[in-house]
Specification:
Elements lengths: L4 H32 L14 E3 L2 E12 L3 H4 L17 H4 E12 L5 E2 L7 E2 L4 E2 L3 H8 L11 E2 L4 E11 L12
Antiparallel strand pairs: 1-2, 2-3, 3-8, 4-7, 5-6
Length: 180
């Protein structure tokens, strides 16, 4: 089963023509779809500036980055069930930081509204993480209130919650942890 050089050349030309034909069909369709569905605009808000999210006014009041050993001093009235050091998480004291975002939620509508807090993520150009649920419960529990990650707000009702996010050194590219 030998193939002559002429047959190989014909097969190579046909294969190249097929690839070019596929690209010729693909590229215009790719451009058409990207023009029809451009990327969504990026909206930025400053601390204290409200944004509307599914019928609820959301306002970031404060944000800070803290180390785990600082938590008892920052929240002296809180009993922490979440404790990465006691749980034996490797290097929790020096390789973990907590992003704490204090958010005010206000129902500005005329009907009850629920907002899903667990879909809110903390994000930088190279890192993102979801809500630390156990720490959320610790920080937002009071004697007369058990928190929920999907609070329902009556018309005009507002509440303030702390959204905690855990950042771990291994989640960052080399050299970026120190600047975080």
């Amino acid at each position: 089963c030998t193939m002559t050089k002429g047959k190989r050349a014909v097969i190579a030309c046909l294969a190249a023509a097929g690839v070019i034909a596929c690209l010729a069909a693909f590229i215009p369709r790719y451009q058409q779809i990207n023009q029809k569905y451009p990327p969504p605009p990026v909206e930025t808000y400053a601390i204290g500036e409200p944004l509307s999210y599914k019928g609820v006014e959301v306002t970031v009041q404060e944000s800070l980055i803290a180390a785990w050993p600082d938590m008892p001093a920052l929240f002296p009235d809180t009993t922490f069930t979440y404790n990465p050091v006691a749980n034996g998480e490797v290097g929790a004291e020096e390789q973990m930081k907590l992003v704490l975002v204090t958010v005010n939620l206000k129902n500005t509508g005329e009907e009850s509204q629920s907002i899903t807090l667990y879909t809110m993520v903390a994000k930088t150009l190279t890192w993102r993480n979801g809500l630390n649920l156990e720490l959320f419960m610790d920080l937002n529990t009071t004697a007369d209130h058990t928190p929920t990650i999907r609070p329902a707000l009556a018309p005009g009702e507002e509440m303030t919650v702390i959204l905690p996010y855990t950042a771990i050194k291994q989640q960052f590219p080399p050299g970026e942890w120190a600047a975080f």
